[in-house]
Structures are given as structure tokens and as C-alpha cells.
Amino acid sequence: MKKALIITYYWIPSGGAGVQRWVKFTKYLREFDYEPIIYTPKNPEFPSIDKSFEKDIPTDVTVLKTPIWEPYNVYRNLFGKKNETINAGFISENKKQGWKDKLSIWIRGNFLIPDPRRFWIKPSMKFLTKYLQENPVDAIITTGPPHSMHLIGMGLKKQFPNIPWIADFRDPWTNIDFYKDLNLNRISDKIHHNQERKVIQRADSVIVVSNGMKAEYELLKPKQIQVISNGYDESDVQKTAVQIDQKFSISHIGTLNAARNPKTIWKVLCEICEEIPDFKSDLQIQLIGKVDFSVLEDIRNLNLMDNLLKIDYLTHSDAIAKQQSSQVLMLLINNSGNAKGILTGKFFEYMAAKRPILAVGPVDGDAATILTETEAGIMVDFNDEIATKEAILSYYNCYKTNTLQVNNTSVHRFSRRSLTAELAKLISDL
């Protein structure tokens, strides 16, 4: 069996979206004659913990760990937040950003390039160089963000030019939605772009998760680039009948930051509540995960707090169950420059749940195309109040007549096993 070294910051027991992609690849790689070897930090800073992924990893998989030093304790001491956990993304749950938050973001963007995990690059190079000399592998794979993982891969490629190196981008680097919020100076911006370009050009193959990302990175002239999307694991989907919510539940599951705040949906829901008496009593907005202060503020201002059910965090298995029991699933795409190419893992899990999807994003983007092909839901543009209202009322009328369902049978091509087969073929071709 051939061996693939996978360098990833996020690993079990981390929760959140960042860990799922390579946990699932690892789960199925042996079926395609590849033995995964994981390299990950010994003492990382995870925004959440979810031990439910442990069941996906074979007990005898080799997991290599070395210590990492991260600047978060310095940050906590400087800004008086000794007991605060690190949030995923740019999200403020209880207040608007103050000067301390803005200063810490500026320091992060201009001094911790490409990200706060950069201090793990040199120790990892030293450890892995010795390891690979004694334990040869057939491929090296790095996955980011954090994009420091790619810089480890680029260093190893220089030391071991005959080992194929694959750089997997779960999200863009300089075109990610919060990049502009880093408040970069000209020099820092140039360094970020230069590092990104070097990774793209020096990797033997680049993997991206959508056609939009592929088009973007093709401009940087990679040696080879391929789309392997996120997906869903068939074994995660409950096979037993699920009790659908009695209320007209519209659920968002995952981190909801300011860039994804669906202001148009909140406004339209408020209008329908005023126009249809039963709608107010039937409606339940379910937000599961970390939610930015600005989102809750908008809901409060539109008198929808009585309709809100907020749950801070669910394990992945519980989140899957919630997806299957919701009347409608709300998919929110960042209103940013890379919006057309955004395809999150949650999107495919939503489709596997076989509940109607109400999506907000570009109507000519990758997600909209798949929704149309699979008939899994409706995509409305960010500010299109008319289309948003029509979609919600259409779903609500079906809810009232007990006919709210979808039959998206073509979702099977996005199963994690099928996607792992694509990955194995890519490695073999290299």
C-alpha cells in the first residue's frame, strides 16, 4: 500500500468545518490503496471540540504530533482576555469590535504572515525532514487554511524534489472574505500574494473545492489544478425516520459572521409576520453555532427575537440530525468577491439531509448551478427582496399543506467515498 503524508492543522478532537474534509479522506483512503499518515500539532488552539469524529479514524492510523507555539496567550495577556477561547473567523459574539480587537487584527495581518501558525513551519521542517529520510512516502499533501501548512509543504518539496506535493485549498488565500479586514499595509499585502503565488506554482498539483476557485487560481499558472469538492458522508446520514419540526423552522447551522448576515431574509420575515397572522406563530428561526453580534442586533430590531432559537454548538452528529429535522435549511454565502466559487462542506450535507434549501448568494455561482441541477433548493440574490419573499412564501404554503419536501437523488456523486476515489486517482497520476 502506498503512503501519503497529510499535513493539517485541524485534526480530531477539533470541531468545526476545517477538520471534516481530511478526516473523511483519511477514513476512505485505504479503500483505494493509500495509507494516510497524519502530521498535526500536539497542542493546537481549537475554537471548538467535537469528539464525534473519532469514530471515523481507524485506530491504527499513524498520527505524528509535534508541539506548536502560537501567539494567542500573548494576545490574551495584552488585551485582558485570559480565559477567552479563540473564535473561528472574524466574529464578535457579544459586542461590536473595539480598538483592541482592531489592533489585534492589524497585528495578525501585518506581522503574522501568512497566519499565527507560522511559528510551526521551521520546527515542522526539521522534524519531517528527518522523518521522511527514515520513512519514505509516495506523496505529501498540505491543506489550508491555515496556509502555513502550505509553506511547510513548499519547504519539503525543496528537500525532497522527487516526492509529489499536493496543495489543497479548502478556502482561498488572498481572496478569502475577511482578507480586506486584516487592514494590510502595501508591503504585507505583497508578501501574502507572493507567498500564495509561490505555493500555487511550485506544488505538483493544486486542489480546490469549486470551479470558481479553479478559474481564480488558473491565473497564477499552476502546474496542475483539479476540483475535488467538499461533500457528505453517507454513514453520517441517519437511516431511521426523523421527526420533522412542528414549527416552520428555518435553520442555519454553523458560524454566522457579519459577512453572511442575511439582512434581506430578516426584513422579509418581518414583513410576512405583519401580513400573515399565522406566520408569526408558526415561524422558528434556528441559529446553531457562533453568531455575530450584528446578526442578533438585526433580528432584535425587526422584532423577531421571540421567533429565535439560538444554540451555541452541536456535535457534528447532532448537527446532522438537526439538518434532517428542519423544515427549511438556510445556506448563506459571503457577499464578497469570491462568492461565486464558494462551496462549503455544509452545502453538501444540507443536500444529503433532503430538506429544502433557501440559499442567499450569487444566482450565477457554483452553488446556484448545483442547486438547479439537483433541484435541492432555491438561490436568491443578496438584495433581491421580491425573490426572497416568493421563495419563503412558496415553502410556507407547502409547509401548511404538509407537502414541503425535495427529491434530490443526484446528490450521491458528492459522497465522501466518491470524492476520495478522485483524490486517490490524482495521487496515482502524479
Question: How would you describe the overall organization of this protein?
Answer:
With 430 residues, the chain is of the alpha/beta class. It has two domains: 2-231 and 416-429, Rossmann fold (3-Layer(aba) Sandwich); 234-412, Rossmann fold. 39% of the residues lie in helices and 15% in strands. It has 15 helices and 13 strands. It has helices spanning 20-29, 72-79, 99-111, 121-134, 148-159, 186-202, 211-218, 263-275, 277-282, 293-301, 316-325, 345-353, 366-374, 385-400, 416-429; strands at residues 2-7, 34-41, 62-66, 139-144, 165-169, 205-208, 225-227, 248-253, 283-288, 308-311, 328-332, 357-360, 377-380. It has a seven-stranded parallel beta sheet, sandwiched between helices. Strands 10-9-8-11-12-13 form a six-stranded parallel beta sheet, sandwiched between helices. Helix 1 (20-29) crosses helix 15, helix 4 packs across helix 5 (148-159) and helix 5 (148-159) packs across helix 6 (186-202). The radius of gyration is 22 Å and the shape is globular. It starts with a strand and ends with a helix. 43% of the residues are buried. The mean pLDDT is 90.
The largest sheet, given as strand count, sense and whether it forms a barrel, is: 7 strands, parallel
- Helical segment count: 15
Described by the principal axes of the CA atoms, the overall outline is globular
Name the CATH superfamily assignment of the largest domain.
Glycogen Phosphorylase B
Beta-strand proportion: 15-25%
The percentage helix is 25-40%
Give the oligomer, counting copies of the same chain as homo and different chains as hetero. Answer: single chain
> How many strand units?
13
Order of helices and strands: EHEEHHHEHEHEHEEHHEHEHEHEHEHH
Structural class: alpha/beta
Please name the CATH topology of the largest domain.
Answer: Rossmann fold
Low confidence ranges: none
Distance between the termini: 16 Å
Q: In order across it, which strands form the biggest sheet?
A: 3-2-1-4-5-6-7
* Mean residue pLDDT: 90
CATH architecture field of the largest domain = 3-Layer(aba) Sandwich
CATH class division of the largest domain: Alpha Beta
Tally of discrete structural domains: 2
The radius of gyration is 22 Å
